[in-house]
Design a protein that fits this description.
9-stranded mixed barrel; 36% helix
Length: 259
């Protein structure tokens, strides 16, 4: 079984095959945990080991694409993350399901990664993790690269009487995403449904910025909205009021920068 590294994000996209973009039907799993370094180990040493040895080993054995990230804003600020890209949910289930075939695949990977897993014990203690799996319902693709910022929101949906979760998400897909893409084409945006995990009753909304310059057009260094973003709310006020008639959201978020 692969060893989790502080926070692991399984980011199921078609990235390594089709340009690293989120598409309908992709899966995003988020695993969160605390980093506990062994005595004498620096954060820089742990990061270097992850980038130079753990990530290449995971990519080779799981046929995935992996990224190391750090939270720069939100409830997990200062923590790290691993972004793991699977082609689709079937790709993930090849390794993570209760089937005899999946258990067999993991046994083979455990054996193949025995040495690098043993070496990782020198850097950090075993950790426990919470997780969520997101099924992507719609969104605009993007290229994941060093310096990219990925914002992930876990939102509880409060529906107004007579409306359904499907109507709430459909409205976002049919109205909010096109409005955002039209106003700010550099912004990547996806709607998802959390299909398993600690926040399985919530909706997931994922935003992507190619770098800090793209994000800074919406928020200043103190996190305040820029005039550009304020003008967006004004321009599309009617669309958001229409969404509010179906329901409202309340939750938590993290901004992750790709290292």
């Amino acid at each position: 079984m692969r060893k989790l590294f502080f926070i692991a994000i399984l980011f199921s996209a078609t990235g390594f095959l089709f340009g690293q973009s989120l598409q309908k039907g992709n899966l995003v799993g988020v695993h969160v945990a605390e980093l506990r370094l062994k005595p004498g180990v620096t954060e820089e040493q742990a990061v270097a080991f992850m980038l130079e040895k753990m990530i290449p080993a995971w990519e080779k054995n799981y046929d995935t694409k992996e990224y190391l990230m750090r939270s720069i804003k939100g409830k997990d600020i200062g923590k790290f993350a691993i972004l793991t890209v699977f082609k689709d949910e079937n790709h993930r289930d090849k390794y993570y399901s209760n089937s005899p075939e999946a258990r067999g695949e993991l046994k083979k990977i455990d054996l193949a990664m025995k040495d690098v897993n043993s070496e990782s014990d020198k850097f950090w203690y075993p950790i426990d993790a919470t997780y969520n799996d997101y099924l992507i319902l719609a969104g605009k693709g993007w290229e994941i690269k060093k310096g990219s910022i990925i914002n992930i929101n876990n939102d509880a949906v409060q529906l107004n009487l007579g409306f359904t979760n499907q109507q709430f998400v459909d409205y976002f897909i049919d109205n909010i995403i096109p409005a955002a893409n039209s106003y700010y084409p550099d912004l990547g945006i996806s709607a998802s449904r959390i299909i398993r995990g600690d926040d399985s009753t919530k909706a997931g909304f994922i935003y992507y910025f190619a770098d800090e310059n793209v994000r800074s057009k919406l928020f200043d260094k103190d996190g305040n909205q820029t005039q550009f973003l304020i003008d967006y709310w004004t321009k599309y006020k009617d669309i958001y009021e229409g969404w509010g008639k179906i329901g409202t959201i309340d939750g938590s978020f993290n901004d992750w920068v790709v290292l």
